[in-house]
Write a structure and sequence with these properties.
The chain contains one helix and 18 strands. The chain is mainly β and about 325 residues long. It has three domains: about 30 residues; about 140 residues, Immunoglobulin-like; about 100 residues, Sandwich (Immunoglobulin-like), CATH 2.60.40.4070. Strands 10-18-17-14-15 form a five-stranded mixed sheet, with no helix packed on it. It has a four-stranded antiparallel sheet with strand order 1-2-6-5, with no helix packed on it. Strands 4-3-7-8 form a four-stranded antiparallel sheet, with no helix packed on it.
Amino acid sequence: MGFGPLSGGWLLVPGDELPVTVAFIAGTTIADLQKNAQWAQRIYDNDFQGPAAPDQPEFWTEAFPDHVRIYWRDNSEASVDPITQLADFEGYQIQRSTDLNRWFTIAQYDLINEIPDPEFERENFNLGMPYDTIPAPPSGTGWRWEVDATSGDTLGRLYWYDDYNVLRRQTYYYIVRAFDQGVIGAGVLITPIGRSYIEVTVGYTSDNPPPVSSVDEVFVVPNPYLGGHEKEFDGALNDEGNKIYPRKLWFMNLPVLATTIDIYSLAGDHIIQLEHSAGSELEVWDMRNKYQQEIVSGVYYFVVESAGDIKIDKFVVVK
């Protein structure tokens, strides 16, 4: 690669540096080449900043005994793309994770409109925003105008969404992301996750304290176990870091004291003993015996013992 001669008084001596910016442009047609060359020029003129997603929504959470409420403001809706200079906000995604690796969308909203560029119209679902009634917003969604308590000024819309698909004493991570209407050459842009997520542990509140420690209310979820269930999507890793099949069974409403759970087959064979630590009301079992073998279909008994109290019950496994 070479260039020159330099003119206009440029003089390079040994040790001097000359910054050079190079753009690699490709395209299947002359029109694509021209379009991509224009994008390269725009990004160069804009101090190497390309098209950007809308601003990160301001959001926070509130934990209840049986659900998590996610609040967010409408600040993203006034975002202007630094390249196109268009206010191209389109919608929101509320996402949740249990391991910070895999994120699942639990709610999504977008404007009821027509996307200017037909290339992205197929991604325009027109689900509506929380304030739309057609289609009706999901149960647990709400919004109101947020007003400054001191000045009385309107601060914009405040939205919220209630996530009831949670387990008590389970830690979740939430984020609210905003996406745009799509930019030719860049696609639909959505705010990155980064470290903007919020960690939430579902549990009791001061108005709803934990029950007195007892084994009487212990139960198994799901029962019967029918080869799998939706709570297993998180997966599991073995000691070598390799993914294993994510079988999961929960023992719920355990006493907050130290507890043992012994599991037996219908024939009376001891399957495994689980040591439950104090301070939590659930214990997750990977459905493997004490020899790390997966259990087979059948009826099983479990014996819960805590502070001298004992409960015996059963659960069913169907694979």
